[in-house]
Amino acid sequence: MKNDVKASQIYSTLKKIAKEHYTVEEEPIMNGARGYTAHSGEGQKIVVMKIPGEDENVLHTLIHEMSHARLEHLYRNDLPRGLAESEAELSTYLVGAHFGFDFKEDSATYIKGWLDNARVHGSHLGKENLDRVMNNARWLINEISSRVAG
């Protein structure tokens, strides 16, 4: 299966999974971001900017934003943003790699930038963070796999 078809199929599957837990919207975003997670009336809202022909990018963004939501970063005032962004992006890389997508270059640059930011503020990625990332990635992989195959 070609990556654009596979990305579109996995995106649709993940969007259905996300809608079971969160409000999900596709809309233009003007601040340069490709997506964000925010509070909504009844929990969390995930917003992604879907651009025709950029199926891998929108899949990357949805995995990243769903990771923020699943890891409850909006409610973790004790977690510095640099670590929250690193957790979400590392989850994205692991899920993407499992399904055959190469997010390595973008993910590595993004994670390095946020880890550098966290270090400046006295925070470091530790075992607890990695456990959270691996549990989140495993859950996402299992949910997507069971629905794409089924």
Note the topology.
Blueprint: H1 3-19, E1 23-26, E2 35-40, E3 43-48, H2 55-70, H3 81-98, H4 104-120, H5 127-149
Parallel strand pairs: 1-3
Antiparallel strand pairs: 2-3
Helix pairs in contact: 1-2, 1-5, 2-3, 3-4, 3-5
Overview of this structure, please?
The protein is mostly helical and 150 residues long. The chain has one domain (3-20, 52-149). The protein is 61% helix and 11% strand. Strands 1-3-2 form a three-stranded mixed β-sheet, with helices on one face. A hairpin with a 2-residue loop joins β2 and β3 (43-48). The longest helix has 23 residues, at 127-149. It starts with a helix and ends with a helix.
Question: Notable features of this structure?
Answer:
single chain, mainly alpha, 150 residues, 61% helix
For the biggest β-sheet, the strand order reads: 1-3-2
β-sheet strand percentage: 5-15%
Radius of gyration using CA atoms only? 15 Å
State the helix count: 5
Overall number of strands: 3
Q: Which structural class best describes the helix and strand composition?
A: mainly alpha
What about the largest sheet? 3 strands, mixed
Distance between the termini: 17 Å
Which sequence of SSEs, written as H and E, runs from N to C? HEEEHHHH
Count the domains. Answer: 1
Average pLDDT: 92
Q: Name the overall outline.
A: globular
Spans where pLDDT lies below 50 across 5 or more residues: none
The helix fraction, in percent, is 55-70%
State the gist of this model.
Strands 1-3-2 form a three-stranded mixed beta sheet, with helices on one face. The chain contains five helices and three strands. Helices cover 61% and strands 11% of the residues.
